[in-house]
Amino acid sequence: MAVISLPKDIAYQGDKYKKLNSIPVIRQMLIYPPLVIQQPMNKRTGDFKKISQNPVDLVLLKSNEWICYPAKVGKLLIMVYFHLDFFELGFSMCNLFQLADDSDLEKKPDALFIYGVPGNVLDGLAKYSTVFYDDEENRIFVGAIPDRPEFGYFGYLKKMVLTLHNSIVMKAGNMPFHGAMVKIMLQGNKEATILMMGDTGAGKSETLEAFRVLAEKYIRALTIIADDMGSIELDPDGYPIGYGTEIGAFLRLDDLQPGYAFGHLDRSIIMNPSQVNARIVFPVTNFETIIAGHKIDYILYANNYEEIDNEHPVIEKFTSAEWALDIFREGAVMSKGTTTSSGLVHSYFANIFGPPEYKDVHEEIASKYFASFFKNNVFVGQMRTRLGIPGYETSGPKEAAMELLRIIGVTEKNEVVS
Description:
Shape: globular
Structural class: alpha+beta
Helix content: 10-25%
Strand content: 25-35%
Number of helices: 8
CATH topology of the largest domain: Phosphoenolpyruvate Carboxykinase, domain 3
């Protein structure tokens, strides 16, 4: 891995941020994959708390110890400053977020993130030392995570960036989502854009992998818009339009089809391959696709914990916004060991990355948006992937993918034809 980093005057508002302009900014990157990285940690703990103190006021960054990756996260520009102790993880962002070009850096950043704050500076600000601050005066968000081995996991880096993104999206009155969004083009020019929302380990990425396996037989083309996080806006007619955030995927090796990872070694970064929750990071789409804006046809909650029977079909359509909101709000998922939680757990809208800190704002947004889904006849339901049930790790997502293809193939104007 190699980078070219240069001094750059970033258009920050407020003198306290201009001191960050001493930190070199990455302008070019070179990697020779496959890369294998042994992270100090292989799981993430806790959540990201909004605090009332600006981390920039608490830390002084030395230009010879820090480097900045300017990330394009959906429509946003987020400056990620990382300590050289975490350089392997910081450099790995090139496979996940688009590197900003010079024209992007002419505008004021939407957020900045300091990854690797020295010592115990952040301790005591919240239960967990993974925190962010909303600087309303200077119109910028600031995230911060300590420089300690227990935070040396790529998931912390990725999820804080996305927490900042989600918080900014909500303040603009739009709806963030934790999920995967894909445009599927079937034979005969039929196509559908599908959003699968759900928590880590719910089976979103695994169902996408199942679609890829089925592609040759059933699918003319498959375009990934969002692999893990994105946002929804309403067009002038009130119809939901989806956007992504990342150009890459951060996937569990254990949940991929046998041999799939080997087919992508020429562009992959592999993390902790000998441990539980081994991960692979590689590009899956392009920046133009994730910000193009795509009309959403299907919105599904990824349910990984329920068995399938006559009363619990693979895909169940909700008949009201209230029913749908109850399921999405509950955010139930069977933990897959990607964090330190275990068993059946619940998180607000399956998205701890911002919405719990703006719950009142998110509730208002969600009510408005779910009403628009049903008003516009978007198919809203839940998809039982069974990924959290032993023995269904591969067959569950595959059956879910097959059932979704069946529904897409026999629908007209988003209503199932009997």
